[in-house]
Task: inverse folding
């Protein structure tokens, strides 16, 4: 009886404790789920011993076992061949010289005859500046087969035999003359410099932010990777994606007073004579001469011959140019769209574009091509956006937004800094929604792990989007070759861009997404390479994009 009395007496007390506990749990679940995306805690960077990239001063969120395995496999798959160690100081004489090197067209299967549908093989032998044959591989070569009169061109597939010789294989796709062009983009010895810079100096392009409160204003250096100092650090790692971003804490202001983001400066800390490895006109994007004829004549296809023969050592090109028009080889028929056809294709659709300025080019093309599409003035920075255009009569919405940092552009408000994955999570999606993104050009100074992790977070968002709205169309733009000089080579080399493309294909393999191969579309064209490809190439890219959005029946 006494026990029953005590239970009744303390029951309200225990009930009160249970309610307090419930409130505590709900409160903490809420704060974990809905706290702001930016974490303003102050930390010092720590170096984790569990990942190779952290031999530098980069700090990362831990990966899931599956993502960590994928990262390791991707890094292994893109690893370049070992090249001899560079002497110190660097001796140009022992490096690859494109003018001493040669290529030779190998005989066709019928004694010098080639038909459309065959493959043409070229053997390349490299020599150093003293005329001695190279004994190791690792050079970055590109190859193109073209006919300027026909405005025809196709990229060749280069194979490194790791002994100073290379093969370039071309699919033969048009009748008439075809001229071979082989280019040394970088000698293999240059990669020890590029690798070292990205590993040891990922902050050689640094960024800044202004912090402001009232009349007090301070500027601090920011980056993905900050060198540890005695100065405290503001941690702006995105809580949803895990994307890292840090700023040194201002002396007198708190971390939550940061108002913008912009590029600071570039530090080129290369060793004595290393600039010789990136010399325009000498060993940087220089054509290799032929040891014999550089051209062949392509005959009509033989009866019953397939249009393109497969190769055991190379993959089929993604497409080729003929009469200035890009023709895909992956099963999609690419159609030509005038302004009226573009409007009809996009009628009732929302097209959301995310990424760097090479994606913004597509937004600008559509704005210029469609008279009914009007851009709204959001008073955004010219290079950064966001941008929005509407065609009310045809119910067309086109938007464009830059990806999150690192971004090397004009001053951007922190409120406008958005990661692609978070933007995708905000879309409803559906059959009338088109998502386009391209992200590569601003990652050239960082270890490849940073790019892999960015794509993994985007992929998770794409998977979520396609799960909730399977009809959503997702199209990805790859990186493209560009004009190179010493500065561009050290901060955004074509080699790094090509590696990014390989990573992109690996990360999104097997997903219901479509790729537009900007690399081959630029490489196969006769116009000079540019970070922002010229209008004829952009027009072909837009036709490719629209052919995915509005595939047309043949006949």
Result:
């Amino acid at each position: 009886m006494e026990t029953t009395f005590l239970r009744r007496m303390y029951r309200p007390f225990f009930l009160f404790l249970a309610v307090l506990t419930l409130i505590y749990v709900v409160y903490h679940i809420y704060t974990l789920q809905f706290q702001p995306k930016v974490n303003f805690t102050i930390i010092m960077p720590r170096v984790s011993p569990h990942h190779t990239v952290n031999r530098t001063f980069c700090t990362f969120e831990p990966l899931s076992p599956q993502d960590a395995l994928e990262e390791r496999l991707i890094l292994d798959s893109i690893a370049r061949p070992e090249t001899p160690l560079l002497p110190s100081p660097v001796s140009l004489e022992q490096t690859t010289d494109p003018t001493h090197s040669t290529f030779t067209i190998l005989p066709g299967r019928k004694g010098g005859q080639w038909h459309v549908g065959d493959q043409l093989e070229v053997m390349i032998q490299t020599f150093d500046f003293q005329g001695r044959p190279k004994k190791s591989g690792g050079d970055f070569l590109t190859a193109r087969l073209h006919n300027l009169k026909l405005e025809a061109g196709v990229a060749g597939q280069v194979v490194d035999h790791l002994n100073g010789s290379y093969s370039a294989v071309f699919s033969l796709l048009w009748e008439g003359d075809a001229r071979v062009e082989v280019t040394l983009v970088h000698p293999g010895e240059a990669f020890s410099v590029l690798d070292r810079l990205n590993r040891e100096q990922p902050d050689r392009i640094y960024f800044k932010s202004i912090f402001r409160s009232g009349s007090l204003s301070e500027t601090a250096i920011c980056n993905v990777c900050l060198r540890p100092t005695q100065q405290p650090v503001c941690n702006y790692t995105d809580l949803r994606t895990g994307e890292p971003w840090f700023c040194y804490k201002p002396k007198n202001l708190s971390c939550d007073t940061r108002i913008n983001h912009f590029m600071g400066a570039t530090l080129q800390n290369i060793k004595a004579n290393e600039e010789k490895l990136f010399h325009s006109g000498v060993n940087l994007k220089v054509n290799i001469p032929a040891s014999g004829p550089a051209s062949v004549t392509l005959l009509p296809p033989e009866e019953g011959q397939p249009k393109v023969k497969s190769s055991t050592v190379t993959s089929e090109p993604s497409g080729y140019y003929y009469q200035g028009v890009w023709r895909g080889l992956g099963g999609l028929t690419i159609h030509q769209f005038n302004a009226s056809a573009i409007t009809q294709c996009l009628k009732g659709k929302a097209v959301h574009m995310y990424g760097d300025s090479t994606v913004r080019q597509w937004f600008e093309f559509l704005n210029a091509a469609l008279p009914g599409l009007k851009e709204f003035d959001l008073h955004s920075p010219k290079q950064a956006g966001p941008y929005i255009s509407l065609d009310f009569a045809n119910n067309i919405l086109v938007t464009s937004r830059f990806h999150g940092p690192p971004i090397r552009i004009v001053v951007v408000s922190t409120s406008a800094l958005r990661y692609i994955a978070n933007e995708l999570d905000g879309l409803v999606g559906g059959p009338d929604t088109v998502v386009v993104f391209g992200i590569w050009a601003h990652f050239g100074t960082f270890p490849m792990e940073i790019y892999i992790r960015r794509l993994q977070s985007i992929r998770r968002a794409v998977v979520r989007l396609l799960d909730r709205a399977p009809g959503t169309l997702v199209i990805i733009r790859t990186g493209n070759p560009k004009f190179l000089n010493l500065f561009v080579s050290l901060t955004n080399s074509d080699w790094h861009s090509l590696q990014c493309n390989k990573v992109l294909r690996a990360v999104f393999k097997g997903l219901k997404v479509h790729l537009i191969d900007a690399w081959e579309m630029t490489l196969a064209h006769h116009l000079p390479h540019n970070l922002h490809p010229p209008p004829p190439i952009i027009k072909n890219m837009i036709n490719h994009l629209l052919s995915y959005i509005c595939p047309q029946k043949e006949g």
About this structure: Residues 1-10, 12-55, 309-314 have pLDDT under 50 and may be disordered.
